[in-house]
């Protein structure tokens, strides 16, 4: 089955009772047993729920994996993956992971005797050099949030295999439309389904996909034991979102390419980072392992914080919002928004400069997106 067909059809069977074409929304906490010890495969929604099961099967199918496990948020998914480790274990992690992930690792999981080393994973040698005798997980985000660093997953997959280390990939930015990390040896692929997979800023959710039955069993155990599960309605909304994922992502990527090229030629823009531009440092890797470059762009204004603020306060169509990956164009200024609390030197050392702007390019007409940016840049 081709990918475009899978996103629409995978996991969908007409409801046996009514013939409903869409999976019913089982908004229930529990299930009535016919008699002691005899249920219909479901007993309590924290353990499993038919609507969530449809979503988990759908996500596994589009990621090209065997098993999916859905959670209440992307962060709950990351946390559940890290629950596969034990006290004393060490993780090698991309240095530009989403700030919420590094906050979780550095401010919560370190208290449970887990250890983290952050490296620029766009050079796979950095990962191998950081491996210690207790390294149990390599955690890669590609492209990263917000600097859009791209990691060569085949190279990292080989390193993980050689050292027998679990390999997890946060593929939220790429989506299975453009990248399927399991094909490169990943053991775990996670998504914040809050973003492109649901696609309309309508919910918070997450999921992990694996081909390994042992990991699936452990993750299901974590899911039902800790209980960070998504509600059935959020699962249902995500299922609906996925059905248009392929169409949406192609439009996001087409628009983003045009916007990136426009920005790159703009005199008030010092530099543009987009994996689809030949100027991107990992353009060749991105072109080889991704079939498209998705909808996220970072760009650097020459005028620092004042310029960033002016653009943020001048855009009209683009929404000033912290999230990404939805149909609406959204814009963020890390120095005054997501990373405002991080001291300037720390931010700058991570490449999060005062003039950095991140844009999640939506599926509106690209002329309108560019006209909006043009009028905002004119005010700088
Ligand atoms: C790449 C990435 N991973 C994980 C997360 C966390 O997901 P959530 O906000 O759904 O918990 C985010 C959120 O922005 C993200 O961008």
What string, H for helix and E for strand, traces the elements in order? HHEHEHEHEHEHEEHHHEHEHEEHEH
Q: Briefly, what CATH class of the largest domain? A: Alpha Beta
Helices and strands: which structural class?
A: alpha/beta
* Bound small-molecule species: pyridoxal-5'-phosphate
Give the name of the CATH superfamily of the largest domain: Type I PLP-dependent aspartate aminotransferase-like (Major domain)
Total number of strands: 12
CATH architecture of the largest domain: 3-Layer(aba) Sandwich
Largest sheet: 7 strands, mixed
Give me the side-by-side strand order of the main sheet. Answer: 1-7-6-5-4-2-3
Average pLDDT, all residues? 97
Number of domains in the coordinates? 2
Uncertain regions spanning at least 5 consecutive residues? none
The coarse silhouette is globular
**Intertermini distance:** 50 Å
* Rg from alpha-carbon coordinates: 21 Å
In CATH, the topology of the largest domain is named Aspartate Aminotransferase, domain 2
Number of helices: 14
Strand share of the residues?
15-25%
Helix % is 25-40%
